Q: What sequence folds into this?
């Protein structure tokens, strides 16, 4: 049986929640990640970066967690950004064409910066 370790850090400054996952995300462990995502949604934390540097495998149950939340999160002005995928996880992400739905970044910092860039774009649109 595989284990999963999930840690959560939240920044009030930029309102970004960062989830660090280590281990395997499959049918036996996906529930733990689902609980963290659900808790964030209940607390109206819609800007989420998921650090997958320590994840060697994501099953369809794991990918389903991200896909099932993305529409609601975006409708509420947020996003879910993936970061630090190892090559074999990234390969599956592309193969399943999740790159059309979820953005992947080389680092957590890059994902966080994209939230800032999105805000700058929104501010420009409002000013016009």
A:
């Amino acid at each position: 049986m595989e284990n999963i370790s999930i840690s959560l850090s939240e920044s009030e400054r930029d309102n970004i929640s960062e989830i660090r996952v280590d281990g395997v995300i499959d049918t036996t462990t996906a529930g733990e990640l689902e609980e963290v995502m659900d808790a964030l949604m209940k607390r109206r934390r819609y800007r989420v970066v998921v650090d997958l540097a320590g994840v060697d495998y994501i099953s369809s149950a794991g990918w389903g967690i991200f896909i099932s939340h993305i529409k609601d999160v975006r409708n509420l002005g947020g996003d879910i950004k993936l970061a630090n995928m190892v090559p074999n996880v990234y390969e599956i992400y592309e193969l399943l064409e999740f790159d059309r739905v979820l953005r992947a970044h080389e680092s957590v910092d890059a994902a966080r910066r994209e939230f800032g860039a999105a805000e700058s774009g929104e501010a420009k649109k409002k000013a016009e």
Notes: DSSP finds four helices and five strands in the chain. The longest strand covers residues 47-58. Residues 120-128 have pLDDT under 50 and may be disordered. The CA atoms of residues 47 and 78 lie 5 Å apart.
